[in-house]
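Cross-posting from the modeling subforum.

Setting up a comparison between two proteins and wanted a second pair of eyes on the formatting. Protein 1 (sequence, then structure tokens):
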Amino acid sequence: MLSVEQPGLFLEQLFNVTQKMGNERDLDRQLQLVVDAARRFASAEGGAVYLLDKTKRFLLPKVKQGKMFSSKSMTWNPIPLETGSQGRFSDVRAYCALTGQLVNIADIYQYTGFDFSEFYDNDKLLGTRTRSLLAIPLSGSETGSNGVLLLFNCVENGEGETESFSTHIEPLIRGFASIASISISNNQLINTNEVLLKQQEELNQTLIIENKELKGRLFKSLMLDDVIGRSEAMKKVFMLIEKVANSTATVLLNGETGTGKELIAATIHRNSPVRTGQFVAQNCAAFPPDLLESEMFGYRKGAFSGATNNKKGLFEVANNGTLFLDEIGEMPLELQSKLLRVLQEGEIRPIGGVDTIKVNVRVIAATNRMLDKEVSEGRFREDLYYRLNVFPIKLPPLRERKEDLPALINYFIDKYSKQYDKEIKRIDSAAMDLLHRYPFPGNVRELQNIIERAVIMVGKGNVFDMQCLSLDLGENSDGQFTEDDFLNACDSLKDKVSAYEAKLLKDALEANHGNQSLTAKQLGLSRRTLVDKLSKHKLRRMDTFSME
């Protein structure tokens, strides 16, 4: 330990370690230098660094040194920056980060101002007894609080004595922490800029094409397969697909329910550098949080009851391919942080696993929500939103691309005619006009369902006419279907009840943007009952429609 009587030696060593920290570009190695130097300056047996996340809501553990961290069972979790029920800070690290106050405690077993149960539990695991603790804010004069440097001393088997940290070293160690904070902030800024520049350079490679050349070859180089659309709204979508397809940038698709987000995601994959890998789709609203986590990251045998074998998660399955995460706005906050780590670090840790697994996966996310509003209301992580929103594509609703309606109608008639062995000779003009007048709140998915039923209803004359359609606009001046329209399309009481139930379910789902849990709650149903009813009425896949 360097005392105040050795200022020359302290300054010399401070100068040397400052140079090393400033030259180190790897953040983890830089933080190891910070902890190692702080331990030597304060004669501390162990130390750790916690840094604030981008949302400034959590302290994230970064590096650790000392016996206290030798057990794999030791907790090493993010620390929320919040007060307890009485308005007081229960965690010394959160207090230190938010107040900027240095905390020097001689014996944590005799101090009741903070909750040290985590330290007590770790002491039991290791047979040690943590005594003195020193928490120093990592704050420079201009950078603000960047995190916390934690130093501690302990004795083995709870026996013996250990010195507390002298108050004489507090100014010295705080000065060192301020220098370290500035160096860490500079390193983070440089690393962030390098990532952004790399992403920008990657996207620029797809934007170099001259407008004239692009217009001349638009759609010719894309494998569009079953994507239907020649409207101006869809041409804009195709142009964006062409620009982003040759990169591996993250794409965020935004559009109403039923606009074909999964089909567009698959199209991007087919035209991308990872087209030889798998395209894996997952609806984030289809599973409860715990099952969704195991589905995405996999698990190891024995991780929980029923885990009798190792299971690969979707990130492993989609390695060197594309993972499509539909309804990303439904993902719970605790799982969002794990997804963010995958996007940033390119690695996953299966549930119950110890080692991380490197993955190379292109992520395409989709939502029918306004994620920026979800962020402002605290339901979606801001840092994850910016990480996903690298290349946004807005998908137009069907009412804004009515020019595509004839092509879509003919496509679905042809598809279901073959599927149900029907020969459609012609489409009645009145039926076509009826479809043109309808606003299609359920978009292309709703059109598909209407056409499928109509093809089944086609009679002996093989004419697609008004009688085949399940709904009748009649004389409605606003062009909207009424409840009577649903009921008049059915003959028996059983069919009328079934049709009305289907309408109620469909309307409730659309009002809740496809959120099944909220819909079940509003309708007074269990989620399992709602899922069964959706399956019965062929509404189960409302949020994962594909225009195939």
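Protein 2 (same layout):
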Amino acid sequence: MSFQQTLKNKFPIFLGDICGGINSAIITLPQALAFGVATGFGASAGIWGAVILCFVAGIIGPRVPIVSGTTGPVAIVVTSMMLALGNNMQAAATVLLCAALLQFFASLTNLPALVKYIPYPVISGFMNGVGVIIIILQINPLLGHSAMPSTVSTILNLHTGILTLNRHALFIGLVTLAIVLFTPKKINKIVPSQIIALVFCTWLSIKMGLGVERINEVSFNFPGFIAPYFDINHIIEYLPYAFTIAIVFSAETMLTGLVVDSLTKTRHNPKLLLASQGAGNMLCALTGSLGGTAATMRTVAAINSGATTKICAIINPLLLILLLFKCSNFVAQIPLAVLAAILIKIGYDIIDFKLLKVLKYAPKDDFYVLMLVFALTVFYNLIFAVGAGITLAALLYAKRVADKAKLVQKVVYDEDILELEKALEQDYQHKIRVVHISGQFFFGSATQLISKFEDVLGTKYIIINYDADDLLDISAIFALEDIILRLQSQDVNIILVIKNKSVAKQLHDHKIVSQIGEKQMFFKETDAIDFAKQQLKDDTD
């Protein structure tokens, strides 16, 4: 293939990456500024964080187009961290560096593969909560006041905020909201409504001489080194914050990776993706820049613009640097109310309206999980909310599976036994029973099955037949041991039928087999029945 043909074939791909990088940068600019201001890091830290993270992750990350930067969930947890640390940047750098290291170390394990098992109601409840938090926290800046530290304090002080509002700030904020909410889709596809609102409303506020609070200072200079605390006492103190942020960093990155795979029909390397994000966040932490994750909305915008490789993730930060260099004076004049309005729109976009529309048709379990995660996210703690949601979802799933687990009792009839037991003909069915454990025998079903064995007490021989191939968890093993002890206390002989050799080995290792006797475990049910009949016959002789 000639050089000309190669260039002709490659150019459309490269052109798509250029368009994807440009469009995602245009979306990134107002969001990075807004998140930088909202978190307390400052507008410059927001921009430089987007530049550093996207560039580093683009260079060393998977070849698929993934645009990185601060997102809504990250902004919320970082804001909480900054408030808790009293806006101490050295402490913040320590937390973010630890979080980035945890993220990097997680990439060396199999943890990235577990993200796909997070139930959708948990994800939806979390994202809906984050969207609502962003909207609520931006009410005060929209009214011309400083942001409150929490949703609860914002709601409690809403009346006071309205009575003392800055009319100029509210006016320019409402104009911004109108633009981002009602810009026609055809125009929005060409130029994102957020950048239109940012440029027009900033220009309008300058021309009208509005008395509103502005960004005021944006530095083009590359951020300097911030030395974190390296002593063990500080690290231990800040580790809980670091774990929280690392979880958000990693979870949202992995979810974005799944979205990319779906859109591009490819498969990225999740470990490489997480490692590249961790490396980028380390550099952000050491320069006092605002870290982040793989950003879903910006990545989707890049892909929809034609991006097919990670070249778009390199073009994006280069364009941001150019914009920052050429437009820093203009950026400094952006009203905070304009950024608040843009964030309100971001919060609105995060809310999962798709699920809310079908929620009334969803199983009650999904509704309970979503509402729990949503409420805890908005009014308590994001990470606790996710943990509680996953726990509740797991328990409800375990209950559903456990409810399907049952005992199937079969009575063994045999002419020889009948002759021996003529006097006890009415009670014959109690002498030998085969009990099948149907369904998964695990911690959820173990307790239920224990109680059901009360119905089979009084017999001489019980053949417990475990049909499944699934290994037993520790709860099921203890439950089986409890069942055996209960039956043996009633002078009932237990015979096990285990068809899977791995399960049989497991029972040997846990001394279950020795508890009943080696000769009383079989791989075939017929052999177990023959053994029971012979034992019963021997008992009556």
